[in-house]
From TrEMBL:
Gene3D superfamilies: Ribonuclease Inhibitor
InterPro entries, per database record: Dev_Immune_Receptor, Leu-rich_rpt, Leu-rich_rpt_typical-subtyp, LRR_dom_sf
Protein name: Uncharacterized protein
Signal sequence region: 1-17
Keywords: Leucine-rich repeat, Membrane, Repeat, Signal, Transmembrane, Transmembrane helix
Membrane-traversing stretches: 491-517
Pfam families from the UniProt entry: LRR_1, LRR_8
UniProt source species: Diabrotica balteata
Domain of life: Eukaryota
Length: 584
């Protein structure tokens, strides 16, 4: 035992004895001699001064703000023990001829994140045992036929996020053992069947963000062993029943972030082995009933962020499905009742579904992971929560507090997310949660939204004796359509409308009463009733109702001090004047 320890120490000390400046030398997790240079700033031709000849792993990289500027040189040919070479973020413009010749033990060559524009076949000569080649994030424009023809043992080829617009026929010549091909991030637009003739044993194909608009089923006829197909983030609009009929071994299919509108009953009828299907972020408004009737192994289904308004398509999956993501579909409450039939479901995601409440008998009892985030929930009933719940996400809702019975129910839940709610840190709402701040970081990190004195403050910083009485609820502009959700929302609209009507009616009554009071006061002040009797004329000619004032309040003073004077007449004078008026 001591001898072995001494031997290890000798190996480590010898490795440290030959180690380049600003690099680290150590034994990796597989016990291999590794040299890692990651400080950056390296300039000029690549050199391996002070790197031990028995080095098995070399990694040269740099931080984003201090990248290397290296050119390749034939320095690797003496390092016969090399198993992995990683040179990234080093601005390498091109690869030299035969630079890797003779490295028979090399399994992994990673030249990602450089400035390589045109790899050629002689760049890889002598690497017949290479298993993995990474050329991601370069500036490769095209790849000639037979570029990789010396890599007879290649299993994985990754050329993601380059500038390739077309795959040349016979580009994969003589690499028939290739199993995994990653083409994502190249503007290819379409696949030509001729390209895949030389790699018919391919099991993994990925082309995300390749601007594909259609699927060519002639390609899949050449790839019968394909297990994993990822065509997400493209522009595919339609899927016909024949597109995947030759992919009978397919287990994982990703068609997310396309422009698919519907799924027909026979679209996936040939994929009996299918286990994972992602259709998220499309425009799907119809999935025909029976679409998954032949998918007896489908355990994971992601149809989030579509326009689903019917879930009868789930019926064939009642006893099979284990993970279901419906997030982003604005579901009617009655649709949710279908979910309780999913007897094997373990993970259910209903984030951003516009839910204001969840009734009983919706969440299957088998669920252990439940996501209800980004909805309009303000309360929870423990009846809806499964007993075996390990993860619960209610962040981004309208909760002001959680009741004691709910918290007792969730005591054994390992992971709870509570952020971005309207937590009211007062005696009415927060006390049960406050009492748990000493037990769980989940409650300590709760941030108060009300009252104002505690807004933005962590719950762990508040003492119970500081709490005030109940604070009123507040809603932001983002809640404009909160009351329009579901049946309860309709009741809210009716109640609000009635309240507004009664308020307006009361306001009119008060205004009318004030108008009447002002007019009565004017008559009393000017003695208009007495003057009308003496003068024989009415002061108010209009017939307007005193309840509704049509214009400004006007009263007329009949006495003009300049034209009329006060005089005293005897009874005889009055009789005489009366006789003249009558013409006698």
């Amino acid at each position: 035992m001591i001898a072995r320890l001494f031997l290890v120490l000798c190996v480590v000390s010898s490795a440290w004895a030959l180690c380049p400046t600003k690099c680290t030398c150590f034994l990796d997790y597989k016990g291999r001699n590794a040299v890692v240079c990651k400080e950056g700033g390296m300039v000029g031709p690549l050199n391996l001064n002070n790197v031990s000849l028995d080095t098995e792993v070399i990694k040269i990289t740099a931080p984003d703000d201090n990248m290397n500027s290296l050119t390749m040189s034939p320095v690797f040919q003496s390092y016969k023990q090399l198993e992995e070479i990683h040179i990234t973020k080093s601005n390498i413009p091109q690869l030299g001829m035969h630079f890797f010749y003779g490295l028979n033990k090399l399994d992994v060559l990673n030249l990602s994140q450089n400035n390589i524009t045109q790899p050629l076949d002689h760049n890889f000569r002598g690497l017949s045992h290479l298993k993995e080649l990474y050329l991601d994030d370069n500036r490769i424009i095209s790849l000639p036929s037979g570029t990789f023809r010396y890599l007879h043992g290649l299993k994985l080829l990754s050329i993601q996020r380059n500038r390739i617009e077309e795959l040349t026929p016979r580009i994969f010549l003589e690499i028939s053992k290739l199993r995994m091909l990653k083409l994502s991030g190249n503007n290819l637009r379409e696949f030509h069947p001729e390209v895949f003739k030389d790699i018919q044993e391919l099991t993994y194909l990925e082309c995300r963000g390749c601007a594909l608009t259609t699927l060519n089923n002639e390609i899949y006829h050449l790839l019968p062993d394909l297990i994993h197909l990822d065509l997400g983030k493209n522009d595919i609009k339609n899927i016909s029943q024949n597109d995947f009929q030759n992919l009978q071994s397919l287990r994982h299919l990703k068609l997310d972030s396309n422009i698919i509108y519907s799924i027909d009953i026979s679209t996936f009828s040939s994929q009996a082995a299918l286990r994972k299907l992602s259709l998220s972020n499309n425009k799907i408004n119809k999935i025909s009933p029976g679409s998954f009737s032949e998918n007896h192994n489908l355990t994971e289904l992601d149809i989030s962020y579509n326009r689903i308004d019917d879930m009868s398509f789930l019926e064939p999956l009642y006893d099979i499905l284990e993970k279901l993501d419906l997030s982003g579909n604005h579901l009617r409450t009655e649709l949710l009742t279908t979910l309780v039939n999913l007897n094997s479901l373990k993970e259910l995601r209903l984030a951003d579904c516009g839910l204001a409440q969840i009734n009983a008998e919706v969440i299957p009892k088998s669920v252990s992971v439940l996501d209800l985030s980004e909805n309009y929930l303000s309360s929870l009933n423990k009846i809806i929560l499964p007993r075996n719940l390990t993860t619960l996400d209610i962040s981004g809702n309208r909760f002001r507090g959680l009741e004691e019975d709910i918290l007792l129910y969730l005591d054994n839940t390992q992971n709870i997310k509570l952020g971005h709610n309207l937590w009211s840190c007062d005696l009415c709402h927060i006390v049960p949660m406050l009492e748990r701040t000493n037990k769980s970081a989940v409650f300590r990190d709760v941030t108060c939204s009300a009252p104002y004195i505690f807004k933005g403050k962590k719950l762990e910083k508040i003492q119970r004796n500081e709490l005030t009485w109940c604070s009123s609820a507040s809603y932001t502009a983002s809640d404009a359509n909160f009351f329009s959700l579901g049946e309860d929302g309709k009741v809210g609209i009716i109640a609000a409308s009635t309240s507004v009507f009664l308020l307006l009616l009361t306001a009119f009554a008060i205004i009318g009463a004030l108008c009447y009071a002002n007019r009565h006061a004017a008559r009393y002040y000017t003695h208009e009733d007495k003057i009308a009797t003496i003068e024989g004329e009415s002061i108010f000619a209009s017939n307007h109702s005193p309840l509704f004032c049509d214009g400004e309040l006007n009263f007329k003073f009949p006495l003009d001090m300049e034209e009329k004077k006060i005089s005293i007449a005897t009874i005889d004078e009055i009789k005489k004047e009366h006789a003249i008026t009558n013409g006698t």
